[in-house]
Structure formats: structure tokens, C-alpha cells
Amino acid sequence: MKTSAGVIVPTPDSPVAKPSTNDLRRYDVRRAGVVLGREHRMSLIHPFKAIRPHPPHAADVSCPPYDVISTSEARTLAEGRPNSYLRVIRPEIDFPVEVNPYEQKVYERARHNLAALLDSNILLEEDEPGLFVYRLVRDGYRQLGVVCTVDAAEYASGRIRKHEKTRPEKEDDRTRHLDISSVHAEAVFLAFRDDAPTADDICDVLVSATTDRPLIHFVADGVTHTLWRVANPETFQSLFEAVPDLYIADGHHRSAAGGRIATERAAKNPAHTGDEEYNRILAVVFPQRELKILAYNRIVKDLAGHTPEVILDRLQTIGRIEALSDGVDPTPESAGTLGIRLDGRWFRFTFPPESIDHDDPIASLDVSLLQKRILEPLLEIGDPRLDERIGFVGGIRGNAELERLTETDAWAIAFSMHPTSMAELLRVADAGEIMPPKSTWFEPKLRSGLFAHRFETTEEFAR
After folding, report:
1. Which of 135, 82, 136 is nearest to 112 (CA)?
2. pTM of whole model > 0.90?
3. Which of 25, 50, 326, 429 has its CA 20 to 30 A from that of 108?
């Protein structure tokens, strides 16, 4: 039920004056009082030879990420658009619907389609490695990150922290896509903590890098996408050396696939040094402070044999529930609160605050409270990953979508959630735990087709 439709989010405070481009070359991690000793944990980012659109073609080439649209949606979006990047990341759309999307020829078509875009000069491949700054703006809200590659070894060691389990079939799919194309066609969405020693300085240089003329600038699906080439990659690299850890916000399957490819290529290369491009994963890294998570709402098909009256009575034994008057916004204003759509009415439900174990990073999440106290015991939803009676609706669609769905016979009850916070996500990742399924919806999402990373060059192959 994912979509790339519009969303309204608050506008952050306007940035203060930032250093000029010339000042960036003088940045050094010592500004933050950081001493890099032998045991210091650092995050390494690397320039890469980007594959990107020629500017006039950027909007036409670009597309939503592969994992937010279905194959049928991709077919519709790519109809009449031969240069759409969907033909690279969703190559099954070039075949009849009866063709298995995991066949060898489908992955080979992805490689062919990417080569065709390069041959026709729709895409170009940079001659020199570089870093890029990528800005996304929707309704006045801005996200600004650095496009780079990161070390697969840091993912394997847990230094690039994760918070989700991967599904074997999806991980295998992305691994085969990488293996056959030797290109990271889409970036992983990473974040770094606001309390990292050089976080403020990184934010400063990100803003300063946007004063030059951009390479790419266009609007798609209500989001303005702008890309700049960084004049001084070493400044960013130096500042990131003081960042202890990176965190996966979105792209766990791409990260896992990149890690697998790095291991497999290293095993096949008797001259492996660790510096080859296959050891790196394409990423965009954002500051924690600039990322917003929207709610991931729940809908359930039936009431497990209960009447609405019984459900309301049972809910009163779990927490406090009150009916809302028409026109009152049911969106939860704080954690520990739900909006519930049942029998054509909205209710506000509150879990008893004293019953929540805030020392437990998983059990204290609203999605966990809902699952353990309502969905499982009352509506008999066991594993939400497998139970077909439950559905998930990205908060970008709003409560109107929950009303629409529950007005049909297909869905009996809906839950409007308070969004998981970035602080909660980072806390779970730091604890080495796994977030409950469908806990986070990041928006705006990275646009695919704006940058790709070829990780096996002719020189490496010949060594």
C-alpha cells in the first residue's frame, strides 16, 4: 500500500549564515576538538564516478524507488516513457505479465536498459570520482544529504546500524540485480546522529555546497529535487571521520545485497585489496535533524467475530477511550495515543502511561503496544508480517484514506498512529534490536535514476 503521493510537514527553522565555499577547504575535525586515536570509531565516505542523467533528461528518467510501487504500478508509470529508469530497477515491465520477474533474462534486461541509456546520452558517466549534495523539498520542508559510497565492511561489522530484518526473497532479488549489472542502481538512505562531534559542521558544509549552480533541478510528485557536485570532497570525508556510526533509515535489502556482493567479489578476486569499488555501497547520508518519519497506520479486515460494542467494551479494560465529535482531528498528538475508526466513528484511545516500560526500546513503541495489547489478544492478529487480515497504510495518505477503506466491506477497523520518532529508531538500532514491521514511513523519498555507482571497472576486472 505504499505510494509516493504528497504530504504536508512542518517547515524547519531557517538556517543561520553558513561559511562560504572557500571556507570549506579549511574545515578540519580538530575544530570540534576531536582527536583521532587508533581506537577511534569513524565513518568513511568515498567519492565515486557517478552515472547520472544529462540535466535535460533528469525529470523524464527519474522515478520512485523500486520498493514503493508494485510491478503493475511501474508498468503504468513507465507507459510511453522509454527512458524511464523504472526499466532499470523494475525490468520485468518490459516482459509479458506471465514472465517470472526473477528469471535471468529479466536481470539481463536491466543491464541492457542501463547501457542503452548511456549509449544514447540520456545518462552520462563521470570521468572522475566525486561527492554530491542532494536536496529534497516538499511543502517548504527540506532534506539535505551527501551522495557517496560507504564501506560494505562497516555494514558487516554493525558500524552501519540496522533496525529491520530482511526478507530472503527480496534480498536475493536485489543481490542478483547487482551481480548481473555490476551497478548499484539505487542508493541506501542513511542517517547520522545529531550529537556526533562534527554534526553541526557537516550541516554547515551541506548548506554551503548548495550556493553553486546545480547539476540537476526539477519537480516530481510534489517534491523538488536538486543535485550539486561537491567542489571539495576531502572536507566532507574529514568531517565524517569524527562520526562514530551511520544508521540505515531505508534500504535494508539494498544494504544486505551490497554486503553480499562485496563478499562474493572479494572471494573471486585473488588480488583483492579492499580498495576495489565492489567493497562499497551507494548511499545518501542525511543528518538526523532533517529526517521526518510519518505514521504507518493499520487496518484490519474483521473484528474476529466480535461486534463493535464488544470491541469498545474490551478497549475500556485496556486503556481510556473516548468518542470524538464530527470534525475533530483524530490524528494522535503524542506517543501512547491512537485514533481508532470503528463503526463509522472516530475514537481516541490512550494507553495508561504508568503501564508503559520506557526502558524497553521495543515494548515502549506505539506499534508494539498496539500489537501486544489490542491486535493480538482482541483481534487475533498473530504475526503481522504473515497475517492477511491486517493491512498497512502509509501516513502520507492521511486519515481520509482510513475512513474510505472502513466505509467498504473490506476493512472493519482502522488505527491512526503517532509516528515513530528518529530518536526511537536510533535507540532501537543502538540496542541491536529489530523494529516491529511497518514502523516507519520516511518522506520525501529518494528519487531513483539521479545517481548510480558502477562497482566493477575494466581495470579491476583485468587485475
Report:
1. 82
2. no
3. 50
